[in-house]
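WARN no homologs supplied; continuing
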Amino acid sequence: MPFIQLESVNMHYEQQDKGAIPIILLHGNFGSWHYWRPFLENIPNGYNAYAPDFRGCGDSQAPSTGYDIETLCQDIIQFADHLKLDKFHIVGHSLGGAVAQQLAGSMPERIITLTLVAPAPACGLKKLQQLPKANTFFSAENIFQFLGQINLKRQIISSSIKKSMPGLSEHYLKQAVSDALKMDIKAFTGFLETLKSWTGLSLLKTFNFPVLIIYGDIDQVIPLAALKEMQQSISNCRLHIMRNIGHSPQLEHPRAFNKLLSAFIAGHEIELTTEQILNAKQLSILNKAKLILRRLIQK
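OK structure emitted
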């Protein structure tokens, strides 16, 4: 169980070493390095993968402050510097996708490729702005603590994870629930607050490296339209949609996910459907053409 002492947090991470090319894997909200376990166990030869726990998550320390995306980004930069990782592939899931965007935009010269898995979109998560503020009675923190007092926390979290990640096996579901329950309350409130306000649209123009966005077509957390807009704003970006998958493709269909990610970081071509290749405007034209053709056939 390795740790690295950074400036303001003792960070836990897991590593799988099969070569010299580094990959940094960033988990999402309520998660830990466990979300990358299937990939760590099957990384291709030639790569060295690192999966850190964010502050307040997993086995990392939970300092009193620093639960915003910018600080999480600085943690990962310090992590990479400590390990002397000059250039690396970076993969971010959900909240980790926002941190990965922030990091990639702040030092694009060190990024080989960027993979965003059901990421917080660069335009922000507008629906979170409707949540009560942190200092109110009905804040997320107070509700979370109340559920713990009446012994409903595990039940509510399990139900929520099942809904957002319907393809999880029983094993991965139990681990996801355990990770969520282990997360420090400061991380719980801090992550929600930072996701309410964070946007990364200005970062996208600095992405001069290959970018892959992976999305599950039944994801109820992240809006697909926002990711399509991101794709159009990045010069070299592919959007891959996994069918019948929710918010956690790397756990819901690990074999397909591992194959996809391994091919991308190796620079191989990824087979995409017509819908995934076309942008939103082109797809609209195609759909209209199909409708006209169908009507002509019916006459």
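The two ends are 69 Å apart (CA to CA).
OK
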